[in-house]
Amino acid sequence: MANAPVDSPVSAAAGKIKNKKLLDWVEEVAAMCRPDRVHLCDGSDQEYQLMIRIMLQSGSAISLNPERRPNSIYVRSTTVDVARVEDRTFICSKTQDEAGPNNNWEEPTRMRRRLTELFTGSMRGRTMYVIPYCMGPLGSPIAKVGVEISDSPYVVANMHIMARVGTKVLEQLGADGDFVKGWHSVGAPIGPNEQDSAWPCNSEHKYICHFPETREILSFGSGYGGNALLGKKCHALRIASVQARDESWLAEHMLILKLTSPKGEVKYVTGAFPSACGKTNLAMLISTVPGWKVETIGDDIAWMKFGDDGRLYAINPEAGFFGVAPGTSMKSNPNAMLTITKNSIFTNCALTPDGDVWWEGMTDEKPAELMDWLRRQWTPDSARLASHANARFTTPAKQCPVIAKEWEDPKGVPIDAILFGGRRATVIPLVIESFDWQHGTFLGATASSETTAAAAGKVGQLRRDPMAMLPFCGYDMGSYFAHWLKIGATPGAKMPKIFVVNWFRKDEKGKFLWPGYGENSRVLKWIFERCNGTANAVDTPIGRLPRPEDLDVGGLDIPAANLSKLLNVDVEGWLGEIPLIHQFFDQFGERLPKALRDEVNRLEQRLKK
Ligand code: OXD
Ligand code: MN
Questions:
Q1: From 108, 228, 417, 563, which residue has the greatest number of CB atoms within 10 Å?
Q2: What percent of the chain lies above the pLDDT cut of 70?
């Protein structure tokens, strides 16, 4: 490194970096943030263990009982840093129009000035970790490289699980390769005579900023989840959605699953669901229909590109699962429970007296005593939750008992069906098949859901969340819809079929109409057979629906009245949605594709016929 003094904290790391752009940037960040040390991550197990030791020694983490959960740790954050902060998340494109009404925007130069002030000296007393990572299997033509610079050992350990990291990525990057830059600081420098806190963060200033033109992420003040693990939401969705627009592919908030019929025929399905709506459960579902099998390829993000045969091929850019813990149990998701038995990180769960973790919904009976996530004694009589509603596990995907053998196939898997889902107590039926790609894009663009605890803010309010991408689309959503339509109109393309699903319908008394979980395989089976042209459907004003007799409910104890409510077209309810859809679309002005307005009008006409 030309400009670094021989004894500067960067010099040792610099000697190992052959990529000029990376070298210059590491030097720039170190000069600005003033860390005590610079550590270039090699991705080794020794390095992972070192991060764990640092967290144990600083009081950030506790080792779980090795007999219960080998090689696993328990971490607690603080009340001011527990979820993604959407109101502090910015897209700093050149113009506000490009960021669109779906994003907070700030002029890039102004935001950079503000961030430069904040990052200056922000790593004093800390180590600056340089984490080369690859989103997607190494060598995949769909995968992309990024480098995150962070002052958090928790981030390094999580990135080890969530992405491919270290020397092998640097090798792939080579001397001239390009990469997404991710700057991250918890924003909590330590003075010479100060003690570090167990969860360093900045309670006053939090900024999660994206610069789509320069493919950069600058994240300050939070150490939690998607705010800090920059490969995930920031890179693989917000920046990648812009790259996908520019390069004609799709970067989506979708699970990927493999569905095998009793005859051994295979279909691959992706599904977009808002945060904490059961994506991980669906990706690992155990079928209740004899002979049908679901295997997992990804639980959160799908990158899809056209293959030479005109089909969309998907990879999971991640290598681990960062799953919502509460509600996960041997009943709701046994495969997730078996995945997290070892080598995992648990954040903001509760701690049992024998050194294991617990969260709400894990067992029918609550433990007699716990230490809650706020370090307080807890008993079932305590009038509060023991774990935070957004408590998480970070766990390697390869440990999942139903991980599909092709989950790391560099060319991806060809997608047959795309699902859009959400949490809707009323109106939306159990399943709808779209008439065509444009109608499917319309259904995805108007999807809505009740909000959950994955993001800070009110829980249970209805919000429109197009393609489950509202918090993750790195540019104007009107243009994003146009991109979807353009992809579907690609010459020679053989597009997947598009479906809407809703496992969350309730009756007048607030009881769920559909049992969900493994029983969702009955809907997947219908979808599979629709792709094969072997299942029946009827055309309705809202799309194609199964009749009750078209769904395989053999062996399922469900009242006929429930099934007919689940598959009924609520004409009044849908007519009530029409003005709301127009209102939602209005915000995108001229950028809203006319085809989507046509779809609302056609829907209205069909409903009024
Ligand atoms: C997630 C989310 O963490 O969507 O996956 O919030
Ligand atoms: Mn997600």
A1: 228
A2: 98
